[in-house]
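thought: fold this chain, then report.
action: predict
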Amino acid sequence: MSKRLETTFAGVRFKNPVALASGTCGFGRELNEYFDIQKLGGLCSKGLITEPCPGNKGIRIWETPSGIMNSVGLENPGVDHFIECELDHMNSLDLVNIVNLGGHSMDDYLSGVEKLNKCELDLLELNISCPNVKEGGMSFGVKTEMARQVVREIRKVCRHKLVIKLSPNAEDIVSLAKACEEEGADGISLTNTYLAMAIDIKKRKPVFENTYAGLSGPAIKPISLRMTHQVAHAVSIPVMGIGGISTWQDAIEYIMAGATCVQIGAATFMDPCRALDVIDGMEAFCEAEGIENIAEIRGIV
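observation:
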């Protein structure tokens, strides 16, 4: 394949700008049974927190028109297990290793970063959409000043390239992104899932035990694309666009809106090999349009 899709994000080289989103690909082993995942530009790990977590009880996945709702929770084996059993495998792959880290308190984040500081990885993606249990459950990523505080404290100790994953439920996503940049973030990824709900009319109760869940899939693409456009044109650090990308045309739209890279999530559940179709389509588009490198169309809208 040519170098038309080669790109650089925060100083890290991607052979192409397509990565799989956190929570949709495990640590890469399962999907590698369907296709050579080293054809991807990057792989984003399952969201990790310091201690192992079984995730949420009850129904976890619910299909909805043009999308999927999930209430998986932060089910994960914990940072220590990841380092011991998964990290070497991810590092052995010829793609960008993006490790996603969450937490329910500042101590969680700091503990996770301290452990990961001892390891080699390409990018650390900090999920600030987690509920802050010490502040009544409000997400760290909703209020700009709360997000600023998290990034400031993590930046002081984190030795890795730091990408902040933003929630679409933020009160002002542009101001929040600017605050992350001001506090030393190396990049932004957006958006996480949208707060949503489903009701079982027979049981007369919410489908999910936590009442609300995260909506992803094609339904959210126009809104996430708009937010990506707003943020990419407001900050000088690179942006990863996420949300409803299921075709190469979707990915090109995100690049034209200003994204340097994109992440594919829910579409992988419909077709495990979808990311390869996106990569091939982007390559063919660039060739047909006489585009020598994808950067030529980045942010042109």
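thought: worth noting. The chain has nine helices and 16 strands.
final: tokens above.
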